[in-house]
Every structure is written in structure tokens, then in C-alpha cells.
């Protein structure tokens, strides 16, 4: 482990095609596109983008597949501009770059999403460069959107679990990220991977779906359900750290039983420009603290500041700023008054 350095993202590379429309039409009716922009997203994309913008000098590796198309070129160019190692971010002619059509109604701001999984479905066991990865920590995701990785495996339960096990055998610390899908698949698929995760970082919806607990109802937090869910997540594989984050704060449980609750910040309505990528920013901020060996308290505070920075911009990563500027947000806004 002492020879390894850096953080790698394996998995979802997505280009958002954001279209501003005048109305949401009924079937067979017309809506005018008033404007459009392109913005990257997905677990792996957001990981490399956030960590590069934190400007801590942490080496970053990008792993996965892009289509041989304009979206793929946009993502690859952005990674190179940010100084990300793209050796294993491969271009394929077997599928297009994964993309999401994001239709935003001008008058309401409401968004509707049409997603193409694209080249992300090609990530399987054989495509992972186990001997080439130099990073200390590797994140794999989004589970439930990577068909080959979500597929069953006779020994490990899923291909993703087999990938994580092999990464651990190389001395790499592992974690996963998943989409917040409202289905039984979270409970059916994700626990197989948790057996081989050193760190478990999920939101309260995902944690509840995986473990069967109702953690948060509006602003009402069920602390017993939160604790029980975290213990169950840890028990799947004896994780070193479990973190469950939500809009009101984050709860952490260590392997030796230490608990910590970090409230989020009270933000004025005009500060929040969009929620896309905020959960990933918290996830990535936590990984940075783990990589750097910070205390649990400092790690959660930084993760909170990273998520707050992300909320200041409508895209997934462009609100992120250097780590010290993120931390300054903790002085600018008060913490929520939550006792735990």
C-alpha cells in the first residue's frame, strides 16, 4: 500500500445533453428547443473531475470505455486538460459514449431524463487492467447501470464483486457507487459487491433500499434505523468505514465502532443552482480524506464542503473549487442544528 498513490474511477462516463425547451409536450406534439449545452457526468467522470479541481496533487486514473464519437472526444479532452491519466480510458466502436438527454422546461425548471447506457455496458472482468493500476483507492460505479459488471458470477455473485475482490488482492482499497434506483435490484445486486468493499459510501435512500430501513422522512431522521442500516452495510463485508450521507448531514461508522454525525450547511435558496453531482462530490471528498489519511472529522467536514461547492453550479463538477476554497464555505454558512 505504501507504494501505491492516487485514486482511480472505473465505470460510468456519461455526457449530458442539456436541452432547454419551452414546454413539456404531450405525445405526438412539438416542443421548441431554446438552447442546449453539454456537460459530463457519471461516477467515474465526476470522480476525476472533482479530485482534479480539489487541487491536492493526488494522481488520478480514468478507466472505462468511451464511444468513438464527439461525446467521447469531449470527455477525453477534458480529462487531459485536468491532468488525468487516461491510459485505460479506451475508445471503442462497439457502442456510443453513454449519454443522457436532459429536457429542462424553461418556465418550471423541471427536468426529464432519457438515458443511453452506451459503452458503459462493456465494462467486465476482462476489461480491468489489474496489473496496470497504480492507485491506492479504486471506486467502481455506477452499479445497476453497467450490464456486464452487474451480471451474475457463479463464485462471487456478480462480476462487479469479482472485480473488487481482484483489486483487493492487488493491495488496492475498494469502494462502489450505485444509482438511486427505486427497485429491489439495490438489495439483490449491491450486497454482493459490499463483501469486497473497504469503504461503503451511500446516500440514505440507497442504504435504506439495500437494508430495508426507512431512514429519513422529509426532515425527520430515524436515528435507530440509520445506525442499524450502517451496521448491516458493514456486516456484509466488515468494511473499514461506512458513511451514509443525506441532505441534512452524514453519519459515519468505523470498523471499531466509532460513530460520527456531521450536519450539512444551512444554505440560502439563491445559493443552490442545482443538485446534480452533489452526492458524488461528497463521495469524492470522502475518498480524498481517506487517501490523505485525514481524521474522520476532517474528512467528513471536507466532504460536506465539497458537496456544498457543487450545489453552486447546475453541472455535476464545475462548482467544485480548490480544497481550501471548499473549506472556506464552512465558515461562510452555519451548520444545521441537528443533535445526534
List the main descriptive attributes of the protein structure presented here:
340 residues, alpha/beta, UDP-N-acetylmuramoyl-L-alanine:D-glutamate ligase, nine-stranded mixed sheet, 10 helices, 32% helix, globular
List the helices and strands and how they pair.
Elements (H helix, E strand, L loop, with lengths): L6 E5 L2 E8 L11 E9 L1 H12 L5 E8 L2 H12 L3 E8 L5 E8 L5 E6 L20 E7 L3 H4 L1 E2 L3 E2 H11 L3 E6 L6 H10 L4 E5 H8 L4 E2 L2 E2 L1 H13 L5 E6 L2 E6 L4 E5 L14 H15 L3 H15 L12 H10 L8
Parallel strand pairs: 1-4, 1-8, 2-6, 4-5, 8-11, 11-12, 12-15
Antiparallel strand pairs: 2-3, 6-7, 9-10, 13-14, 15-16, 16-17
Helix pairs in contact: 1-8, 5-6, 6-7, 8-9, 9-10
Distance between the termini: 35 Å
Which topology of the largest domain does CATH recognise? UDP-N-acetylmuramoyl-L-alanine:D-glutamate ligase
CATH C-level of the largest domain: Alpha Beta
The rough form would be described as: globular
The major pleated sheet works out as: 9 strands, mixed
Query: Rounded to an integer, what's the Rg over CA atoms?
Result: 19 Å
The CATH architecture term of the largest domain is 3-Layer(aba) Sandwich
Return the structural class: alpha/beta
H/E element sequence: EEEHEHEEEEHEEHEHEHEEHEEEHHH
Q: Number of DSSP helices?
A: 10
In CATH, the homologous superfamily of the largest domain goes by the name Ribokinase
| Number of E strands | 17
* Physical arrangement of strands within the biggest beta sheet: 5-4-1-8-11-12-15-16-17
Helix content: 25-40%
Contiguous uncertain segments of 5+ residues: none
What fraction of residues sit in β-strands?
Answer: 25-35%
Amino acid at each position: 500500500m505504501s507504494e501505491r498513490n492516487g485514486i482511480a474511477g472505473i465505470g460510468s462516463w456519461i455526457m449530458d445533453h442539456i436541452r432547454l425547451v419551452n414546454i413539456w409536450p404531450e405525445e405526438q406534439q412539438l416542443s421548441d428547443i431554446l438552447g442546449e449545452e453539454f456537460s459530463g457526468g457519471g461516477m467515474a467522470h465526476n470522480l476525476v473531475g472533482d479530485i482534479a479541481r480539489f487541487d491536492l496533487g493526488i494522481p488520478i486514473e480514468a478507466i472505462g470505455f468511451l464511444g468513438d464519437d464527439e461525446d467521447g472526444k469531449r470527455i477525453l479532452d477534458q480529462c487531459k486538460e485536468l491532468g488525468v491519466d487516461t491510459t485505460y480510458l479506451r475508445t471503442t466502436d462497439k457502442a456510443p459514449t453513454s449519454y443522457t438527454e436532459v429536457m429542462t422546461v424553461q418556465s418550471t425548471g423541471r427536468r426529464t431524463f432519457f438515458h443511453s447506457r452506451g459503452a458503459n455496458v462493456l465494462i467486465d472482468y476482462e476489461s480491468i487492467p489489474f496489473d496496470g493500476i497504480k492507485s491506492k483507492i479504486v471506486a467502481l460505479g455506477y452499479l445497476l447501470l453497467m450490464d456486464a459488471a452487474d451480471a451474475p458470477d457463479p463464485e462471487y455473485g456478480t462480476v462487479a464483486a469479482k472485480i473488487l475482490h481482484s483489486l483487493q488482492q492487488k493491495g488496492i482499497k475498494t469502494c462502489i457507487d450505485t444509482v438511486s434506483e427505486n427497485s429491489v435490484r439495490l438489495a439483490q445486486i449491491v450486497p454482493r459487491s459490499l463483501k469486497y468493499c473497504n469503504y461503503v459510501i451511500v446516500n440514505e435512500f440507497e442504504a435504506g433500499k439495500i437494508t430495508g430501513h426507512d431512514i429519513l422522512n422529509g426532515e425527520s431522521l430515524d436515528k435507530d434505523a440509520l445506525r442499524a442500516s450502517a451496521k448491516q452495510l458493514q456486516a456484509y463485508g466488515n468494511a473499514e468505514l461506512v458513511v451514509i450521507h443525506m441532505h441534512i448531514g452524514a453519519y459515519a461508522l468505523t470498523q471499531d465502532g466509532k460513530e460520527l454525525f456531521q450536519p450539512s450547511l444551512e444554505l440560502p435558496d439563491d445559493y443552490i443552482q442545482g443538485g446534480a453531482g452533489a452526492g458524488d462530490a461528497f463521495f469524492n471528498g470522502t475518498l480524498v480524506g481517506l487517501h490523505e489519511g485525514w481524521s474522520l472529522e476532517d474528512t467528513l467536514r471536507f466532504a460536506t464542503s465539497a458537496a456544498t461547492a457543487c450545489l453552486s453550479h447546475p453541472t455535476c463538477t464545475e462548482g467544485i473549487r480548490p480544497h481550501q476554497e471548499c473549506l472556506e464555505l464552512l465558515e461562510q454558512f452555519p451548520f444545521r442544528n441537528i443533535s445526534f
